[in-house]
Amino acid sequence: MDLRLAGNTALITGASAGIGAEIARTLAAEGCHLHLAARSKDRLEELAETLRAEHGVRVVAHPVDLRAATDLARLAEAVGAPDILVNNAGDVPAGNLAAVDAATWRHAWELKVFGYIDLSRSVYAAMKQRGRGVIVNVIGSAGERHDPEYIAGSTANAALMAFTRALGSGSWRDGIRVVGINPGPVATARITALMDTNPNFARMAVHMPFGRPAHPREIADMAAFLASERSGYTTGTIVTIDGGLSV
User: Fold this and answer.
1) Given pLDDT bands bounded at 50, 70 and 90, which one contains residue 201?
2) InterPro entries under this entry (predicted)?
3) Which CATH architecture has domain 9-182+215-240?
4) How many other C-beta atoms can be found within 10 angstroms of the C-beta atom of residue 234?
5) In terms of C-beta density within 10 A (0-12 exposed, 13-18 middle, 19 or more buried), how is residue 217 classed?
6) What are the C-alpha distances in Å from 80 to residues 73, 92, 108, 209?
7) Where are the chain's structural domains?
8) In angstroms, rounded to a whole number, what is the distance separating the alpha carbons of residues 209 and 24?
9) What interhelical angle do 151-170 and 102-112 show, nearest 10?
10) What pLDDT does 246 receive?
11) In sequence order, which residues have a C-beta less than 8 Å from that of residue 71 and are 6 or more positions away?
């Protein structure tokens, strides 16, 4: 299926590894020009160089801390009005209410919740002026399967689900679509390493749907489809990819 994304420009946050890097690879293969944002300058530039060589697209690396208002503003100004914004950055820690103190909770939300909201606000304004655009929020299925041992993440994801639905319900008036993806367990490098070295994680994998976590490419393919005109009547919608765990 031709997604007709060639020539589009996409901004992807949290792009140096995991799901974000896989979305970058998928969109580059579709012919998108990319802006990649994350804190790791070396990993970003390595990925950018690879994608330029493999796909002949323009790729700009932006080493930024999206918790910092100045970095966020600098990124938004540098990118302008992309055709696609993929909000993906986040590192909310596990723990119950007693374990996650106020400072840790706020620090995590500055990136995963307010980072999404603040960058969307800046990019949305530019998209609105141009009359088109797509925002894809990579959220997480803990927003549906609420976990007391991941309370900060469950609450963050639930908030971003509401944000996506609220913004997306009216964004069509400005020519903009806003959609979300809720991944369940995904075989990123961190999770794969834990499964290889930690017996508890190895046992968990056996009981996952299909006996495995999702491949990052399975999340990336959905992000590309939702960003394309093949999904042109979709907004305010969140697609869950967790093998049926949330059903």
Assistant:
1) low
2) NAD(P)-bd_dom_sf, SDR_DHRS6-like, SDR_fam
3) 3-Layer(aba) Sandwich (3.40)
4) 16
5) middle
6) 10, 28, 26, 41
7) 9-182+215-240
8) 26
9) 30
10) 84
11) 64, 65
